[in-house]
Structures are given as structure tokens and as C-alpha cells.
Amino acid sequence: MRLSQSFGKTLREAPAEAEMASHQLLIRANYIRPAGAGVYTFMPLGYRVIRKIWGIMAEEMDAISGQEMWMPNLHPAALWQATGRWGQMDVLFKLKGSGNREYALSATHEEIVVDLALRDIESHRDLPRMIYHISKKFRDEPRPRGGLIRLREFIMKDAYTLDRSEEALDEYYPSMLQAYFNIFDRCGVKTTAINADVGAMGGKTSQEFTVPHPQGEDVFIDCDNCDYAANVEAAEFVREGEKPATLAELIKVETPDCKTIADVAAFVGVATTQTLKCVFYWWRPSYVEKPGEGRLVFAMTRGDLAINDTKLVNALGGGFLRAATEDEIKAIDAVPGYASAIGMTPARDMASPGVMIVADESINFGGNYVVGANEDPYHYTGANLGRDFEVSRIADIAQADTGHKCPVCGGRIEAKRAIEVGHCFKLGTRYSAAVNATYLDENGQPQLIYMGSYGIGLDRLMAVVVELHHDKDGIVWPDSVAPYQVHLVHIGKEGDGTKEQAEALYADLTAAGVEVLYDDRDGVGAGVKFKDADLMGIPWRVTVSARSLEQGGVEVKRRSESERRILPIEEYPILLNPALLNS
RNA sequence: CGGGGCGUAGCUCAGCUUGGCAGAGCGCUCGGUUUGGGACCGAGAGGCCGCCGGUUCGAGUCCGGCCGCCCCGACCA
Hints:
Distance between the termini: 27 Å
Low-confidence stretches: none
CATH class of the largest domain: Alpha Beta
CATH superfamily of the largest domain: Bira Bifunctional Protein, Domain 2
CATH topology of the largest domain: BirA Bifunctional Protein, domain 2
């Protein structure tokens, strides 16, 4: 490609709204252009990177028996209604065609795949199968961010497995995880696979591939001593603390202006571990709230810990939570800021009357707590579970955080931010059951198909590659995903013979199949060309100039290194295989 | 959806406090010089100052509403 003919140009300054390095550099270096919030055009260079990543993914998927196909992005509403997600997935873009036909834009493709399975999988002989495709996803994200990190329209590789049984799925699953590691390794991205909550995707297990990054939107827990790692939504930790040897007397004390745990602990003179924190939620079974549906949930944990909403939902067996309103809290005679379970009748389960009180395990690792008196402005001291109040159930609902004890080795864990680049789900029969997608087993009996789904965001991965591979001057692409291998730079003036040499080299390299970006621009200073080359980040820079020719050849420089060397012209065929230059 | 910030030339930004001719640098066009790290001289083009309404003799500037974009949070299938 001749730079003199390329569409678009590099920018000296990044648009003001770009904050992340990848966002700034990809725009400045002419890889992407914004069309709106979370919507980008891939310029010629950017599209070449996407195609490189695409190729790596296709190779790795094919290597584990994947079959590449191409699924639609316009989804008839009926498919989404069949799985129950039409009314549940809030980020689903919906649109109407003529005659009131309704469609969804592809937010994901489980619906398409399970419909295919329904039609085309008939016998156990048709299983197992692994299919995948790379195409656009559309999600009405409330807040796109970070350039290509979080988009409303993005490119995803998603693979789907169809198996006879859970065991068959379990057996295949590790090869998918390995393929994922291979893909990320080949792209120059070191990932950590962590156990994550499955969320509303359904299913039972999921592994999230993350890259630690300060501007990531995921928080995960990492042990500094062993390899335990998990998303905070699923991370376990060891509660520390002791029950008191003797129970103190329950005493009501006046605590003016003490609305927070820290206030109360300081006022009464105890550690926050000797307090109980109470948070009120409104639980409902479906995403869309319906009048008269749902109930209040009273969540409690030791005062030094925070409640994790996802863990709480899981402890309740599913559903959705929002913060309870003041009226809903008052309806059970609790006083916000001074609430406790004292005097309340806990519900036995979600269907029973009383107050649904869920306490974190941590309350068993302490006692003689300071708790609210359900009266403004009073607290009790010396409160103890069993003697002074009861709960509906005790579960793991507190969020793991930095400094907590590792559940595996007993070391200390740390909360870190990360960017999620891939996710593998064992879906089980969540979707096949919804549409009754079955196969006939050896005995002629219909059995539900076991599914798995496995996604990687290509554009997000591209951004992460840049986050990990750049310096002050620009991008430094790994060879594997670089849009071109050689950035050929011509410097010289009319009639000094340099142009002819550069043109000849360009022709030879191109004819030999080397991917060359050729800066043939006339009247552009050497400084500009070098700055652009650094910005664009192509692995090898080859300069043809009067100076290099005087020194006997062309100058070769690796983007990632500062060393430049002269390669004699007669040895130029070595450039036909740039990998040789590494030796 | 809550909090904060921003919207003026392709990009970065001044001008708004205190209403009075629409500005700079970079980029772009033309001519010339230059040619190893974002060069120089000269001449140009380029604007619904986000949109709508209000106040005013007069609004980029003041007031109200809306839209868009960015950041934090919520959400994140």
C-alpha cells in the first residue's frame, strides 16, 4: 500500500475525548474513526488488524473441530421470544419492519444457534458439533467507553458447542479454554482465566479471560500466594474473627447523627467488625418489574464487609435486585440508618410470610454486635444471633476485597481491575430446554442438547493489544497482528536516485508477498515520515535514503528496538522473509 | 438512570467573567525554498459559535429547554 494513496491521515493530536492510550493512538494513527458513542469505523489499517486477529481465531477454532459459518444479524423476534429473552435483555436493540414484523439486532447468537440445533440436530450421530462465526453484535449499552473497550456495535467471535451430555461438554471444554489461551498468546496478550458469575446467560460454569488493567471495568480477586483468581461476583474468601467467650448484655444506647457504620463504630468505640451492616433490596423474579410482584430482602453482613449484589441474587436462587425505597423499608418497621433484625420475624423461604433476612457467614465470626434499634437515634450494643435476633438464612453474600484471606491457600488476596477479553460459558440446557431442542439417543429416546458458548470481542482485543504494546511515540504491534510487516520509508529528492531504489524494493517485496506499507509521499519531511512510522507501529522499518545508500544499503530498524543497521542492497532478499532479520 | 465536565474551522483550543466586526496553532490549497525526527517564506480557502426558544437596539457571550460527546457511579447477557 502506498501511503500517498491511502484513505485518511494521521493526526498530530488526539481528539480531546480520547483518554485511554489505545483510544488515542488508534485514532491518531488512522486505524479507527468515531461515528458516534460506541460506534466506530475501521479504517484500512484498522481493518487489516481485525483480519489478522480474525485469521488467528479461525485457525485456533478450526484446530479444535470448529466449523466457521456466518449467522444473521437481523433476528426475527420469535426466536428471542422462544427463549424468553425478548423481554428480559435490556440492551437488546429492537426494530420493526413493515407489517409490524419485529426484529432484534444480534446482541448475541444463542437464539440463532438453538434454532439451528432444533432444525438440524436429530440424532446422537449429529453430535457433538462446534460451530463459530465472527460478526457484528449490537447492544444498547448505557455507557460506551474507552474507545474500542465498550461499544454499542462490536465484532465478536462466538463459538457454540452442541453436545449429548454434560459429561461430553465437560470433556470438550478444556480444549476450548486452551484454544483461548492460544489465541490471546498469539496476539501478545497475557490473560488470566478466572471463575465468574454466569449472570443471566444461564448455565452453571463460566471462565472469564481478563487482562489486568487500571482502567478495566471488571474487578477480580487475585491471590498473591497461589493461583486463585475469581471475579468479585464469585470470589470466595475466609471470614476471620472469633465469637466472644461470653455474651454481653443487650443495651440500648443513644447514637445521635450516626447514620453510617463508621460513625456508629467510632461513637460507640468499637471496631467496624463489631457492628452489623443492614442493606435493603427489592427482589423480583423477572427483569421487568411488574406491580405486586417481588418482595423485600433484608441483607446483613458484618460491618467491615460489603454486600455483593450478585452473590446475594445467587443466594436467593436467582431473580433481580434493586435498592429498596424508603417506603418499602418502613413497611417492615425498619428505620433506615438504624435498622436491624431485632424484633423481626424472619421468613422461612422466599414464598413464606415474614421478613426475608439473609446474613453473610461473617456474622458467625464475631458477636456482641452494635446494631440498629429500629428507632432514631438508637442502637443496641451486645446483640447476638440466636439470642437477640434470627435470620432466614446464612450465605456467602459479602464481597471479597484486598487484604482478605485466600480460600485456597490462606494467603492474602488483592482486588484488581481488569479488562474482560473473552468468556466461556457452559450453558447446559438453558436454551435447548426453552425450545425443546432434542436429539434421539441410542435408545430412540429424545434428550436435550447440551450447549456451551464462547465469545471474544475482536475490537476490544485489538484495543487491549495496543494498551499492552505501545510507547510514548505510538503503537508497537506484535508481528502476529500488525497490519503490515514492513514500513518502507523513502527519503530523498527528485533526481538523487533514491526514489528508484525505493520503488524497486517496494515492487520486489510486494511481488514476494511481503506486506509492505510504502511511504512514497513527496514533499514530506523525513521527520514527519519517521514520526508517522512510529505512530503506526509496523514491526519493521526499512528506510531508503541518500544517507543509507552512501552507507551501502538500506536502513533497517525494528519498531520495538532503538538499534538501526544498514543492510547491503545486494542482501535485500533477506527482507523477503522479515523473520530472518530477527537472527 | 444519578454525579461531574465539555460542545466555537478537519484537529487542539482561546474568546463567554463585564453582550458590540469570528480568533490562534496545527492540518488543508497555491507558489517557492527545504529533505534523517512532526522544517521555512509568501498568498489563500475554510464557521448555522450543537439545536430551539427567551431577554436585549444588539447574543458565541445572559436565561430556559433539548440534543450530542467524555469521565465517575449504577448496569454490563
